[in-house]
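G., the chain you wanted modeled:
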Amino acid sequence: MDPEANGLYKVATYQRVISSCCGAVITSLLVTPLDVVKVRLQVQSNPSLKGKSFLDTDGLTDHVCVYENGATKTGHKTSGHFTGMRDAFVKIVQREGAKALWSGLPPSLAVSVPSTVIYFTCYDQLRDAFISKLGEDNDYIPLIAGGIARLCSATVISPVELIRTRMQSRRLTYTQLHACISSNVSKNGWFSLWKGWGPTVLRDVPFSALYWCNYEYFKKRLCKRSGKHEATFLITFSSGAAAGSIAALLTLPFDVVKTHKQTEIWESETTPASQKRPASIWEVMKRIVAKNGFTGLYVGIVPRLTKVAPACAIMISSYEYGKSFFRRLNKERDMNNH
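Predicted structure as tokens:
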């Protein structure tokens, strides 16, 4: 039984914000080295990526990396040929120093922290509201609350992500950035700040709905099996990893389509307006299947699972540990007051 769901020693909204903020920072710090290694291996195996932008993720948010002649716009250069992940870790540290494993961390935190705070806090608030109306045993609550929370988070953060991507890729000063945004808004309207929102929601909303549904299910089962009233760190970590893996597997086709759409959106900014409009999501999916078969919709499953599973496990266990800490703190404070 969840003590918070029953109104006992509730965690305040500001305490949830602190917990999710700490979780986002911890996750980014631990997962960014995997990102850097994965990006280096991607560029090495596909030379056509050099000089182009492509989508990457730290497990919490997506971001665009731009490569020019073997170096990112953030400045780091490749460390020769890598034979695998372990070799890449060793060579990067030897030739560039350990700090190179956290390349691009500040701009990543600038988006992942507010996005995660909105997402996790919104989910908890919605879940509590639905439980008070529908009861604790309704299995659809995590599914609905997770989807709505991700929709809210993606909508609020989308303009910030667009601005950050442009700053990273073009080395714009704040004056140039302001002029660029103002020009874009006056020409295309305020909705232009939400460019790429559609394909982002296409993948992230189903992922979040499936993730929270499976996470709550696994957590409840493990608590029942171990005889615990409140989930331990190990239970939340295991549940988060399993739920993240399942959600990543089931939504990978959406991720592949999202990457194609994101690339089209990026490239359309540098192509003449007279050219053909970007393909719809359905058209992109049909094109991928026609060219590579249905397996083309599951390209990159191994690196995606390698990244998403630990990121989900670290984030949710850090967040739940923070809430558990504040719950105990509130309990002690309440006992002292009486």
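Residues 3-7, 51-56, 63-78 have pLDDT under 50 and may be disordered.

Shout if anything looks off.
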